[in-house]
# Entry
Amino acid sequence: MNVELEAARELLDNARRIVAVTGAGISAESGVPTFRGPEGVWKSYRPEELATPKAFGRSPQLVWEWYAWRRKLLEHCSPNPAHLALARLAYDHLKVAIITQNVDGLHTRAAGDEGGYADPSPALPIELHGSIARDRCSACDSRQPGSATIDVTSLGTLPHCDRCSALMRPDVVWFGEALDRVLLDQAFHLAKSADVCLVIGTSALVHPAALVPLTTLDNGGKLIEINPHKTSLSPYASARLSAPAGTILSKLIHS
# Structure
């Protein structure tokens, strides 16, 4: 591990531009539920049955009740040392971008916790799959902060847009929906120009996000993988750290 850690540290120290691509594994130490497997079942519904445009169109009250429950669970989760270490790296390094597949909002909270006075914060992530903490208008696409307290007794009591009064929905990418093209293009552009891509806690199975690290590799950059489990990216990593993200990132970025 020490040899791999030193190799990873040298890659970061010599990099001019760095991208960090994060998945569910980085939030595991914060206690964020995966919502997959048996523990993901809610009132006999699975995520695949609720996180779809069709489900929202059929029963927005049911979908909103589920998301309110999820938001309540996330209220008890905080950024862990991995989120905070990446935020510090972004503040200390002029060319760092955080790209996440997660919707838990912990990178955004870490950007505020780690502070500095930059506005916007350089530690704010590109949220490829959106954020469960925000609402998005189903008509005009405007965003507003979300609440964990949702009155689901009727359509009229659900969140509505401050701008056009249309029904709001959680600002996340649902099954069957495309990712935001602007954010995706931005992620690939940053990955293309990066010297190093940190790949943290992702299975590298969810596309197109899984292609972002390969873009760095294809353009001459190096990969550092942090994951207790091997992935399809493992053979291409110049350094691979098989440890929980919170433990190893603190050592890697602050030594």
Summary: The first strand starts at residue 18 and ends at 22. Strands lie at 18-22, 96-100, 126-127, 130-137, 143-145, 168-172, 196-200, 222-226, 239-241. The domain at 1-31+79-129+179-255 is CATH 3.40.50.1220 (Rossmann fold).
